[in-house]
Amino acid sequence: SSYRGTDASLVLQHARSMSSVSVPPPKCLQKTFVAPRRHMFGPGPSNVPPRILAAGAEPVIGHMHPEMLEIMSDIKSGIQYAFQTENNMTIAVSGTGHTAMECAIFNAVEPGEGVLTAVNGIWGERAAEMAERIGAKVNSIVTTAGGYFTSEEIDQALAKHKPVLFFLTHGESSTGVVHPLDGIGDICHKHNCLFLVDCVASMGGAPLYMDKQGIDILYSGSQKVLNAPPGTAPISFSERACQKVFNRKTKPVSFFLDMTWLANYWGCDGKPARIYHHTAPVSAFYALRESLAILAEQVTLVWFLNHDAIHTLLDRNARLPTVTTIVAPPGYDWKEITSYIMKNHNLEISGGLGPSVGQVLRVGLMGGNSSKASVDMVLEALRDALRYCHKSKV
């Protein structure tokens, strides 16, 4: 009887407190949300397979629990395999590819130091802006959208500007270019410069060998070929990079991305105890581990060849295997095409980004989406859109 009275009293108190709130509970949240099922054939994110979704739905545990630390160790091994590196300093940043880009630049560069960025699309532009924001002296070499740089051009620019860091995008998803990497690491090291590579759109879909290609810092994202949800970003630092990162005169501008802390949290610094730094995205780490397990089950060469073969069905120039850029059909509004395909085929493809805005359509076929059936689906949707979308007479 006394329990029921207490319970009723609490309900009455709650009702009185709710009557005094100025902002009522939103009616939109009283409806159950159901995510639409779509064919995610844009430049990312890609469709997440049931196996990875199931992994992410496992019960949440503490981010410092022994089981969680074991999962992080598994993730580290998976990234080392995906990057083809033996670097001990290999982790997954809690955030998207942009977070890993900032992690690389913020840790490797101090205010006043020189950075050289190779700009053949939007990601070189973004790297330059991030470096400028921390007070670096930034120079860029620029080529037209769809182009890439020769070793001679890179060598000359490094000799001229003498940076501590050179940034290059391996898979430029805004223009559909996969940049040659062989020999560039040696050129950078000749000029006492670290070689930083963005492989968000290429890792797992195009050949990439971090150690053999002399890459000092390499990062990627979870939502492309790995087919995991967005929100985690693999990154690895060579011994040469670690020497620079851990012998700074100043602290990195970001506490959240400070590799001194992150190295400890991931068990990469050799210390016996791990100290709390931030609450990691536990469920996202579950999903990332599962996506790396799927990648490890593939024969890497076969995986690369499959992406290349599927890409060739769309683009016989066979550039970036994971994201194909198609010239926007003259006379058509690209936005109308992508909207029509989304509405009538439940299929996402994207327009251009950065320097390719308004010029191209971008089709991403990555990981489990990389199949002939997916190509056929995209081509049929495009044929249908060109029949029904408006074409100007100009």
User: Which radius of gyration do the C-alpha atoms yield?
Assistant: 24 Å
Low-confidence stretches: none
β-strand percent reads 5-15%
Physical arrangement of strands within the biggest beta sheet: 2-10-9-8-5-3-4
Kindly state the percentage of residues in helix.
Answer: 40-55%
Q: What's the name of the CATH homologous superfamily of the largest domain?
A: Type I PLP-dependent aspartate aminotransferase-like (Major domain)
Question: How far apart are the termini?
Answer: 83 Å
Tell me what the CATH architecture of the largest domain is.
3-Layer(aba) Sandwich
Shape: globular
What is the domain total for the residues?
2
What's the average pLDDT? 92
Count of helices? 13
CATH topology of the largest domain: Aspartate Aminotransferase, domain 2
